[in-house]
Amino acid sequence: MSSGGGSTNGFEAGIGPGLAYFVTENVALEALAKLNLTTGFGSSAAAFSPMIGVGFQIYLPGSKLKAVRNDVK
Predict the structure, then answer these.
(1) Angle subtended at Cα 44 by Cα 48 and Cα 32, rounded to the nearest 5 degrees
(2) What is the distance between the alpha carbons of residues 39 and 8, in angstroms, rounded to a whole number?
(3) d(CA 53, CA 58)
(4) With contact defined as beta carbons under 8 Å apart, do 34 and 15 qualify?
(5) What is the pLDDT, as a whole number, of residue 69?
(6) I need a labelling partner for 45 at 20 to 30 A (CA). Which of 18, 21, 24, 39 fits?
C-alpha cells in the first residue's frame, strides 16, 4: 500500500540556462539551472521541479579524427 505522496504521469519538458567552461580544448566543466514541467494524469494535473546540475563533457575532435584516419590509409 502506498502512503500519501502525490504523483503526476504524462509529458515532461524542461528549460534552463547553462554554462560551459573549457578546461582544455576538448574538456569542459558545465553548470545547469533547469525548470522541469510535468503535465498529464495523476493526483495533480501539473508539477514543477527546479534542478541544478553540474558535470563535464569530453568533445571528440571529429575533423582531426578523420584526418588521422585518412593519413593511416
Answers:
(1) 15
(2) 7
(3) 17
(4) yes
(5) 74
(6) 18
Count of the separate structural domains present in the chain: 1
CB 41 within 8 A of CB 10: yes
Tell me the per-residue pLDDT of 30-68, one tens digit each, with 9 for 90 and over: 999 999 988 877 677 788 889 999 999 998 877 777 777
In a domain, 2, yes or no: no
- The answer to whether the beta carbons of residues 28 and 21 sit under 8 Å apart is yes
pTM above the 0.90 mark?
no
Q: Tell which wins on pLDDT, 2 or 58.
A: 58
Residue 26 covered by a domain? yes
The per-residue b/e assignment along 30-66, b for 16 or more CB within 10 angstroms, e otherwise, is eeeeeeeebeeeeeeeebeeeeeeeeeeeeeeeeeee
67: in domain? yes
58 occurs within a structural domain? yes
